[in-house]
Design brief:
The protein has 2 domains: about 130 residues, Aspartate Aminotransferase, domain 1, CATH 3.90.1150.10; about 240 residues, Aspartate Aminotransferase, domain 2, CATH 3.40.640.10. The chain is about 40% helix and about 15% strand. It contains 13 helices and 12 strands. The strands form 3 sheets. Strands 2-8-7-6-5-3-4 form a 7-stranded mixed β-sheet, sandwiched between helices. The chain has a 3-stranded antiparallel β-sheet with strand order 9-10-12. Strands 1-11 form a two-stranded parallel sheet. The protein is of the alpha/beta class. The site of ligand C6P has 17 residues, from helix 5. Ligand C6P binds next to helix 5.
Length: about 375
């Protein structure tokens, strides 16, 4: 059976060019870049190229920091806990503003910080599954140390007004962090246009390898390290550098940015075709207006069909999708997005996320529409609530 991968917001296939670029660093150029001998120093030029690609790709300035991390979960923890230790713990400020729809690595870190006495405001999304910049503006107080709002939501693909939010934070002298994990490679992520103070990314979401991410820190800002240890990254993030990962992430970033026009045209066309095909089914609801979403994502609720049941049925016929975050796949709680847009309890377990990539083909989309339609027919036939 041919398998069709429509879960690219969970992770992506490594671009073959990225895989090839990483190859030399396992058995040939395997030195530790912090070693003084030639095995260590011979990788320095390659790391410089990779880092330049990241700086260019994100529109960062030379004197900004881009710290290499193990993933976006680490980057997000480093920002939230770093701001806590730097500004909140022994300072005047004690407030963080975020949203109800952040990834668990932000949401659960905020809950942990609440246990340390931090006040956290969780802003809800509107009917478009979007956080409003004005709501962020209103939530900021004299006590606010940090605003953390994602660039694009991982479940719905809805892009948040990060530019306006960044400006509002600037005006009020509040730090702004954005989790751009689901934006890179889908829309232009340019720190010259969006003056964020901190930004997190994860390579495996844009056809790079797993186990490597980055954290942008704007020049002049200091963030106590999450990982203490050696002097790597000037002591700002200790641990031996993941050379193959950094090389892979750098190239993946360049390729992702080079593909943005294709993403906006071709991936969007296929996503819209899938959406139109599924929207022909009765009683389905797509979350978030099309023009507000990144080009690759579709989150659809099918009345009378449990998301989990649909997922398993699709999987049986070779289609890989998800009911939301891959890391919340074992949770039986109502989907927070469906709850947040006020769609009603009867729809809270009915969401399915389908996410494409530049490697998705038209034939796969045609097959997915057929399989999905048949799966819904089968499940509705045995549904007690439909
Ligand atoms: N979201 C999803 O299925 P890591 O696992 O650290 O590389 O990335 C975490 C992360 C952080 N922020 C956002 C917005 C994300 O989407 C993710 C990963 C996957 O939606 C896996 S849970």
């Amino acid at each position: 059976m041919e398998r069709i991968y429509l879960d690219n917001n969970a992770t992506t296939i490594v671009d073959p060019m990225v895989k090839q670029a990483m190859e030399p660093y396992w058995c040939d150029k395997y030195g530790n870049p912090n070693s003084l001998h030639s095995f260590g120093t011979e990788v320095h030029p390659d790391l410089r190229v990779a880092m330049n690609r990241l700086y260019q790709g994100l529109g960062a300035a030379e004197d900004d920091d881009i710290l290499i991390t193990s993933c976006a979960t680490e980057s997000n923890n480093a920002v939230l806990k770093g701001v806590y230790f730097d500004l909140i713990k022994n300072g005047e400020k004690n407030h963080i503003v975020t949203t109800t729809v952040e990834h668990p690595c932000v949401a659960n870190t905020c809950r942990f910080l609440e246990q340390q006495g931090v006040k956290v405001t969780y802003l809800p999304v509107n009917q478009d599954a979007r956080v409003e910049a004005e709501a962020v503006r209103r939530a900021i107080t004299e006590k606010t140390a940090l605003v953390s709002v994602m660039w694009a939501n991982n479940e719905t693909g809805v892009v948040f007004p990060v530019r306006e939010i960044a400006q509002a934070c600037r005006e009020r002298g509040v730090l702004f962090h954005t989790d751009a994990v689901q934006a890179v490679g889908k829309v232009r992520v340019d720190l010259r246009a969006v003056p964020a103070d901190f930004l997190s990314i994860s390579a495996h979401k844009f056809h790079g390898p797993k186990g490597v991410g980055a954290l942008f820190v704007r020049r002049g800002l200091k963030l106590p390290p999450l990982l203490h240890g050696g002097e790597q990254m000037s002591g700002k993030r200790a641990g031996t550098l993941n050379v193959a990962g950094i090389v892979g992430m750098g190239l993946a970033m360049e390729l992702a940015n080079d593909s943005l026009e294709f993403e906006d045209r071709e991936v969007r066309r296929l996503r819209d075709k899938l959406e139109d095909g599924l929207a022909r089914l009765a009683d389905v609801m797509v979350v978030g207006r099309r023009e507000l979403r990144v080009p690759n994502t579709l989150f659809i609720s099918v009345r009378g069909v449990e998301g989990e049941a649909l997922l398993w049925d699709l999987n049986k016929y070779g289609i890989a999708a998800s009911t939301g975050s891959a890391c919340a796949s074992e949770s039986l709680e109502a989907n927070p997005i469906i709850t947040a847009i006020g769609a009603g309890a009867e729809l809270s377990h009915t969401g399915i996320r389908l996410s494409l990539s530049r490697f998705t083909t038209e034939a796969e989309i045609d097959a997915a529409i057929r399989t999905f339609t048949q799966a819904v027919g089968r499940l509705r036939a045995i549904s007690a609530s439909y």
